[in-house]
Amino acid sequence: MQSFPRACSYTKPFAGEAKFEEGAMSFTMAQLIEKRQGEQYALHKRYINPALARVQAIIGFDKSYTRGEGCYLWDGDGLAA
After folding, report:
1. DSSP assignment of 56-71, as one string?
2. Can you give the pTM of this predicted structure?
3. Between residues 50 and 62, which one has the greater pLDDT?
4. Which of 1, 8, 14, 77 is most deeply packed, by most CB within 10 A?
């Protein structure tokens, strides 16, 4: 059986303690999400469900919401919906 090299090696020496060794990735999921912010509907339309993305654009839900409280959502401009 052929084995492939891993991008990073992860070890968990003690309970609750994580350690990354040489070759570990130099980015986090939070950084990736921040980098692609504003592209979520284009990506959704391209890779997941084009029909739903079109409907959301028609009814005005194609915004980037930054926070929610109760039944209210705030977009990047600070406007509540």
Report:
1. HHHTT--S-EEEEETT
2. 0.48
3. 50
4. 8
